[in-house]
Amino acid sequence: MKLQEEREAIVAYCQKMITSRLTTGTGGNISICNRARGEVAMTPTGVDYFEMKADDIVIINLDGEIVEGTTKPSSEAGMHLALYHKRDDISAVVHTHSVFATTIACLRWELPPVHYLIGYSGKKVPLAPYATYGTTELAQNVAEAIGSYNAVLLANHGLVTVGSSLSRAFSTAEEIELVSEIYYRTKSIGEPVILSKEEMDNVLRKFGSYGKQ
What we know:
By secondary structure, the protein is of the alpha+beta class. It has one domain: Class II aldolase/adducin N-terminal domain (L-fuculose-1-phosphate Aldolase). It contains 6 helices and 8 strands; from the N terminus they run αββββαβαβαββαα. It has helices at 4-19, 77-86, 99-106, 136-146, 166-189, 197-207, and strands at residues 29-34, 39-42, 58-61, 66-68, 92-96, 127-128, 151-154, 158-163. α4 (136-146) links the parallel β6 and β7. α2 packs parallel to α4 (136-146). 40% of the residues are buried.
């Protein structure tokens, strides 16, 4: 079975996406790109995450052609591929419908640096313009909006995060959901104080050495 390790990781993280309350039902999708092979392991469409098996994960190439698997890839396959083509530092994509990030996206706001943990994305989380899910237009909007960031809000839809590994992309989804909730709560009380560019420069420098022993 091709990309067995990647397939098993996707199953585990899809279940974690539910238990971490980053999505509901069969919402959202995950992929891992093995650049050495030019192949992408991707969630199938419409399969319950707690019934999903490793061999349900479909393998496609970077042109979107099925290489191995009997299931149909996610309806957002084009969006994942657009991100892999956009930046060669991306090896995993996580798409969620987490409540607070999606709330901000439905207001059609970018997420500003209200808390330093937004550094998982960069100095903010940009917003991709609305387009119908699963369309080429949405894929293009997301690829254009993400720039050098590791997260992007999808207007009236949800959140996409990227990383050099699936664990990194997933951690970014978790942290951006937390920052989104903080922003929501502070906006409910008053007007939050936004961190300055200079402070975010400091944060990102510190992030460069975080966790290194």
